[in-house]
Specification:
about 220 residues; alpha/beta; 6-stranded parallel beta sheet; 5-stranded antiparallel beta sheet; about 35% helix
Amino acid sequence: MTEEKTLASGTLVIGLGRFGSAVALTLEKMGYEILAVEKDARRVRQFTGRFPLVEADASSMEALDQIGAKEFRSAVVGIGTSLEASVLITANLVDLGIPNIWAKAISREHGRILRRIGAHHVVYPEFDAGQRTAHLVGGRMKDYIEMEKNGFAIMKLHPPKEVQGFSLAELDLRGRYGVNVLGVLRPGEPFEYATSRTRIEAEDLIIVSGDSDLLEHFAHRP
């Protein structure tokens, strides 16, 4: 096992596939302390120098002890294709008492198992990406984030024609459609937080929030 650096109290990222490497690269870019763990020597070589990492098999409790895994405040298990490895690694992290464990699941059944053994958060990258793409298909909607399943969401979209040329005070979108305009993006201009005086133009992108069903209805208005 080779180790570049161990960063106690940071985030442990286990598995450098597409999901795990994206998590590790993003956390590193944001300035968070991380340590990545990957048993595939080829992937270790691919990411050497980009963030702290070790070559080790996280399904081995001995290996986790050697890298000081129990000192980390959070861990992300990015392994999904091997159910056995995913479950074993998550169980090891639970046994070590890591207070904040995020685990990738490839199915609802996989996710239920991870939660039962103690994962604090379960993510479904493929399902969530597919669901998000489905919301974006159709043209007007440019981005969509669902904060709760069948609940609150945030959306970026081109404004329907019926709201173009009017101020938010004139439109009363909350009263008419149950949506809130958080801000406006205009070509070549910085983001503008919305006020009652904000006027929506055809070339704008608007950021709106509200119930996901109401947002869908608003986004598909002419």
